[in-house]
Amino acid sequence: MPVISSEIDERTLTLVFTAEFDAPPMRVWQLWADARQLEQWWGPPTWPASFPAHDFTVGGFSPYVMTGPEGETSAAWLRFTHLDEPNALEFDDGFRGEDGEPDDTMPRMHGRVELESLDGGRTRMVTRMRFDSAEEMEQIVGMGMIEGMTGAMGQIDAILTGDAPPRP
């Protein structure tokens, strides 16, 4: 399991996930940069994501849809705010309404991912998801974000070894 810890920091309204992978930072970076690779792991295993567009540039907008086991869907988006290949990236993450536009009634998260090179060609990926309020963090945690993000990152090893099953 690549996720070695997940922590809730109520003082900074942040969830922190730390994972390690048997691949160098540039290879892990590609998991974010390439839409086909991103949709192989973004989202819990039972809620795979699809990215019909992926603009991996500063200011780039990437809408996505996660599909549940009963065919239900949840539309969301990423907007990249900082890219420092292959060391760090930052993005905003939110939900979309039925019109496809960002839904401002739902919480918005601010993510920062840091990729650190480890001995042996390994990478430590620290993902910090910050919220604007305690209520928003509580709502998202209640929706299962910790379990979902842990499950999502748990799929990365198989992608790195080429053993990932095809996603629907």
Describe the protein:
The protein has 168 residues and is an alpha+beta fold. Helices cover 24% and strands 38% of the residues. The chain has five helices and eight strands; from the N terminus they run ββααββββββααα. The protein has helices spanning 25-33, 35-41, 134-142, 145-153, 156-161, and strands at 3-9, 14-21, 49-50, 61-67, 73-84, 88-95, 109-118, 122-131. Strands 1-2-8-7-6-5-4-3 form an eight-stranded antiparallel sheet. Helix 1 packs across helix 2 (35-41). The protein is globular and about 45 Å long. The mean pLDDT is 94.
Summarize the structure.
With 168 residues, the chain is of the alpha+beta class. 24% of the residues lie in helices and 38% in strands.
Mean pLDDT: 94
Unreliable segments (pLDDT under 50, ≥5 consecutive)?
A: none
Number of distinct beta strands: 8
General shape:
globular
- The helix/strand class is alpha+beta
- Provide the gyration radius in Å: 15 Å
Helix content: 10-25%
Q: How are the strands ordered across the major sheet? A: 1-2-8-7-6-5-4-3
State the end-to-end CA separation. 23 Å
The biggest sheet, with number of strands, parallel, antiparallel or mixed sense and barrel status, is: 8 strands, antiparallel
Count of alpha and pi helical runs: 5
Percent strand: 35-45%
Q: Strand-and-helix sequence, N→C? A: EEHHEEEEEEHHH
